[in-house]
Amino acid sequence: MSHPPSRSRPVGLRRGRSRLALALAPAALLATGCAGGGRDLYENSFALGFPDPVTDRADDIYELWLGSVAAAAVVGAAVTFLILFAAVRYRKTSDQLPRQVRYNLPIEVLYTVVPFVIIAVLFYYTTITQNVVNDLTPEDDGGSDVNIGVIGFQWNWTFNYVDDDVSVTGVPGQPAQLVLPTDTTVRFTLTSPDVIHSFWVPAFLFKRDVIPGRANTFEVTVSKEGEYIGRCAELCGEKHAAMNFSVLAVSPEEYESYIGGLQDNPENQIGTGTGTDAPRSAEEVAEQPAGSNS
């Protein structure tokens, strides 16, 4: 009795497809994360403890971080797979030496081109995100809605509400609090009269150096109300660890009420009381002698 020819696939072909499926598993996970239903899985897999972004610029930084970690995971999984595959498939089975080769041109081209492509893609998206983070609202379009002058000095902070001519300065044991309105474009101008500091709010996913004689600027729009910690992220001297502050994001109405309360006290005016000698700009900072405190 004759039997129909077997329609089973060759063993080698089945093994090859199994290996391909294993190699593409990380890419499948990444693709799942891009779908709407897999967003939580995507973030839980690749956020690695990053705080939830609370500003418009932080959203872009967060997406760059997720994509970079996902790419690293895919590369790491692929390299691990190749190492394990080579260790198992070509493990020693006898004392006979395997065939010796001097080079393998296709593989050498592959491991030269692939890393270059990965780096080029990461560089492209990093540059795009950096341009978004550094972008400032043109003055022709009205500029920012609120302007804050940040003065970092040994070892505390002064926050100048430039538009309203009031200021808040931290004192030892009582860190300064910066109050910001939500859904409002806020421009920061950072300066220092003594040494380099760094203005860092972890929830902003961002920090920027505060340099003597130089004005560094950036803009954010805070999207979520709440209180966020702030730190100096640059070793600036003996009491560096004491250079803490907080950011309180409130509604625009609450912000206006807070500014009104500061204006009611003459000691809060820039240049008097707690704001004595607090510079408004890089030019004023440059005129101060090195080592003076604001």
Question: Which short descriptors sum up this protein?
Answer:
Immunoglobulin-like, disordered C terminus, 39% helix, 294 residues, elongated, 5-stranded mixed β-sheet, 10 strands, 6 helices, disordered N terminus, alpha+beta
Outline the secondary-structure elements.
Layout: H1 11-34, H2 39-46, H3 56-89, H4 105-134, E1 146-153, E2 156-161, E3 166-169, E4 176-181, E5 185-191, E6 197-201, E7 206-210, E8 216-221, E9 226-232, E10 244-250, H5 252-263, H6 282-287
Parallel strand pairs: 1-5, 4-10
Antiparallel strand pairs: 1-2, 2-3, 5-8, 6-7, 6-9, 9-10
Helix pairs in contact: 1-2, 1-3, 2-3, 3-4
Describe this structure in words.
With 294 residues, the protein is of the alpha+beta class. The protein has two domains: 14-90 and 102-134, no CATH class; 144-287, Immunoglobulin-like (Sandwich), CATH 2.60.40.420. Helices cover 39% and strands 21% of the residues. The chain has helices at residues 11-34, 39-46, 56-89, 105-134, 252-263, 282-287, and strands at 146-153, 156-161, 166-169, 176-181, 185-191, 197-201, 206-210, 216-221, 226-232, 244-250. A five-stranded mixed sheet has the order 3-2-1-5-8. A five-stranded mixed sheet has the order 4-10-9-6-7, covered by helices on one side. A hairpin with a 2-residue loop joins β1 (146-153) and β2 (156-161). α1 crosses α2 and α2 (39-46) packs across α3. It is elongated. The relative contact order is 0.13. Mean pLDDT is 79; it is low at 2-28, 273-283 and 288-294.
